[in-house]
Amino acid sequence: MLLICQLRCGGGGSAQFPDPPPPPTPTPPPPALGPVTQYNHVFLVVEENHSFSSVVGNTAMPYFNSLISNYGLATQYFANTHPSIGNYFVLTTGQIVTNNEAVAPPTVTADNIVREILAAKKTWKSYAESLPSVGYLGGDVFPYAQHHNPFVFLQDAIAPAQVNNIVPLTQFATDLANNTLPNFSYILPDQLNNAHDGTLAQADAWLQQNIAPLISSPTFQKDGLLMIVFDESDFTDLQNGGGHIAALVISAHAKKGFQSTTFYQHQSTLREILHALGISTFPGLAATAPDMNEFF
Predict the structure, then answer these.
(1) Domain tally for the chain?
(2) What is the pLDDT of residues 55-72, one digit of tens each?
(3) Residue 18 belongs to some domain of the structure
(4) What pairing do the DSSP bridges indicate for beta strands 124-128 and 166-168?
(5) CATH number at residue 169
(6) First-last CA distance in the chain
(7) Do the Cβ atoms of 183 and 277 come closer than 8 Å?
(8) Where does the pLDDT of residue 44 fall: very low under 50, low under 70, confident under 90, or very high at 90 and above?
(9) Which of 13, 53, 87, 132 has the fewest Cβ atoms within 10 angstroms?
(10) Could you tell me the residue range of the domain that residue 129 belongs to?
């Protein structure tokens, strides 16, 4: 065939064919989401209004600091805003829904942690200390603070089929003992025990009383992940919006004594909670937040 082409085309030179197109560049795989371990029980505890430097290394908080020694600490974690309420919404919706604590916000219809948990056919509860009753959606009844319990504003959480998952903290010990904990548990100390109105020593004693039994339980040791964060720093600290705060990552599968220097904010905690449960859709800022898989 080549000879025929040469004769017909005239001359003895070889026929000219265009170079074949280069093969397509393979699309790189998406980055791994981590952690590798699938968690069936994930817990979030939120403390109040103290800076990183006021709690890390503080002798008034021996239990909290023992957790730092044994698990993971984010050393460059910053709250998103002041005052508290905006941070609680970032932890649950990935966005600052409001910064006004004087007026209860309207029902939040944005994508949120409960919507994604339910879409994945998993379960949740909000365990709020001093909550007056199961499914209570009303205002503050001291020492319970409504604006620290963002689940009472989320459309998906207050739907008739879900609202009874908003329960007093007393239910937590019962569920732990009966092995009936949900896949995700929000654990809220009241104003006397979250370091807002009480002392750091009181907050530390509360953690030891309520969290130590959880960590030592067979359920947690098998497939549990606990995040403990402060909502914001004190009001004089405006770094990155809400100031420098402490955040702990606790699991039998976490690196012992690990201290991260990665910059994180509350949207990364929201992302990690959902990802640890095997969920890959992340609300708001959590969709692009840094993953916390380095702790594992």
Answers:
(1) 1
(2) 999 999 999 999 999 999
(3) no
(4) parallel
(5) 3.40.720.10
(6) 64
(7) yes
(8) very high
(9) 13
(10) 37-240+256-295
Instruction: Please list the alpha-helical segments (H only) found in the chain.
Output: 2-9, 52-55, 62-70, 84-93, 113-119, 170-177, 200-210, 212-216, 218-223, 266-276
Please indicate, yes or no, if residue 140 is contained in any of the structural domains: yes
Residue with tokens 């030179």: 13
Could you tell me if 141 and 130 are in contact, meaning their C-beta atoms sit under 8 angstroms apart?
Answer: yes
pLDDT for the residue 38: 80
CA distances for 209 relative to 66, 149, 256, angstroms: 14, 21, 22
Establish whether the linkage from the previous residue to 35 is cis, with ω within 30° of 0: yes
The answer to whether residue 77 is domain-embedded is: yes
Residue that is written with structure tokens 């600091």 in the block = 65
User: The whole model's pTM is what?
Assistant: 0.88
Cα-to-chain-centroid distance, residue 55: 20
Contacts of 71 (CB under 8 A, 6+ apart): 248, 249, 250, 251, 254, 256, 257, 258
**Cis before residue 83, ω within 30 degrees of 0?**
yes
173 in a structural domain: yes
Buried b (16+ CB within 10 A) or exposed e, 101-132: eeebeeebeebbbbbbbbeeebebbbbbbbbe
Report whether pLDDT(8) > 70. Answer: no
